[in-house]
Amino acid sequence: MQTPVPTLFMRGGTSRGPFFLESDLPAETAARDRVLLAALGSPDPRQIDGLGGAHPLTSKAGIVRAGTAAGVDLEFLFAQLQPANDTVDTTANCGNMLAAVVPFALERGLIQAQGDETTARVLTRNTGMLCDITVRTPRTPEGRRVSYDGAARIDGVPGTSAPITINFLDTAGSVCSGLLPTGRVLDRLRVEPPATADFAAFDIEVTCIDNGMPLVLFRAEDLGCTGRETPAQLNADAALKARIEALRLVAAERMGLGDVSGRNYPKMTLVSAPEAGGAINTRCFIPHVCHEAIGVLAAVTVGTACVLEGSVPHALARLPDGPRKAVSIEHPSGEFTVELELDPRDPQKVVRAALLRTARLIMRGEVMVPAAAWPADAAPANR
C-alpha cells in the first residue's frame, strides 16, 4: 500500500513545489527526507515518478507550521532537492518559495485573514531569517480568502497575479558569519585546477557576500564571457562550468563554509554592465545550472553588493541617487527590482530590503508515497 500525504502544489515566484504541514510528515529527519525524495521523484534526471519538474527550480518543497516564538506567526522550512541526486538540503533559504508560505497557511487554516490584506511574520527555520509577508485577502461569499488574481507581473512567470510583498527584516549573514564573510568587499583568489580538469590555474577578483543568500560575484569577462549569453549557452559550456565550480570551492573555503561540494551554495554570479536600463546584468548559477532568471535572495544580495563601494559589481552598476534605491537586477528572462534602504549614517549599510513576488495554488490533494519510503503503518496519527 502507498501512503497518502496531504499537500498543496504551489508556485512561489519563479519556483514551484509541494507544500506540507509539518504535522503531516515524519518527525525524524531521515524519514522525512525519504518521503520528500519519493514525492518529488528523486533521484532521477526526469523525476518521472514524482512531482518534480526535472530542474532545480522545480525540485523544491516547503514545510510549514504555526509559529512557536513570540511575535512569529509562521515557521517555514525550505527543502532543496536535485533531480538526479538523493540529497535534501535545508541549510539555505529560497525567497521564491517563501512567497507561497502565507497563501498556503491561509488555505490550510494555520492563520486567519485580517482584512483586505493580511500580513504575517514568517521565520525561515533554515537560517533564522525573519520577514513580513503581505497578501491580498478580499471578502468573498465564503468569507475572506487569499486572492491569486491581480495585475502584478514578475519576469520569468507568464501572465499576471495578485502582488505579494516581502519585507526582509534581517538577512545579513544568513548562512555565513556576516554580510562580508571574508572581511573584505573585494578578494583576489587563486584557483588551481583539480587533477582531472583541462584548464590552467587562474587569478580572479570576486566579491563574497551574504545578504540572504551566499554569493560569489565576478565579472563575466574575467572568465571569457560577455554576460549576454543565454542560460542554454552557458549550461552547454562544460569548460566554463568546470572553472566556475573550481572557483566556487576555493571561494567557499574563504567564506568559512568549508567543503561545499555537496551543497547548493554559494551561488556563482557573473555580472556585467546593464543592457536594458537596469542597474546590473547577471547570470546566476544555482550552483551548477544557470538560472533562467535569478532567485529572490540572490537578487537582494546582488543589489546589496552593487551599493558597496569597491565591490566587483559597484564599478559596473548604474544606481539611482538617494538613501532609498530601487535596484533593477537584469537577468536572462527580464529584470527583478529590489528596494534597498541605506543607513543615512553609513551609506554602505543596508537597513531594509523589500520586493514584490506572486504565487499561485496549482493543485490540492495527496501525493502518494511508496511504502518503501514510508510504510502506511508508520504514518502520523492524524492520517
Q: Tally the beta strands.
A: 19
Distance separating the two termini: 14 Å
Unreliable segments of 5+ consecutive residues: none
- The percentage of residues in β strands lies in 25-35%
Helix percent band: 10-25%
Going by CATH, the homologous superfamily of the largest domain would be Diaminopimelate Epimerase, Chain A, domain 1
What is the element string, with H for helices and E for strands? EEHEEEHHEEEEEEEEHHEEHEEEE
CATH topology of the largest domain: Diaminopimelate Epimerase, Chain A, domain 1
CATH architecture of the largest domain: Roll
**Number of helical stretches of at least 4 residues:** 6
* Name of the level-1 CATH class of the largest domain: Alpha Beta
Choose one word for the global shape. globular
Number of domains: 2
Question: Structural class, from helix and strand content?
Answer: alpha+beta
Largest sheet: 17 strands, mixed
Please give the radius of gyration in angstroms. Answer: 21 Å
Estimate the mean pLDDT confidence: 94
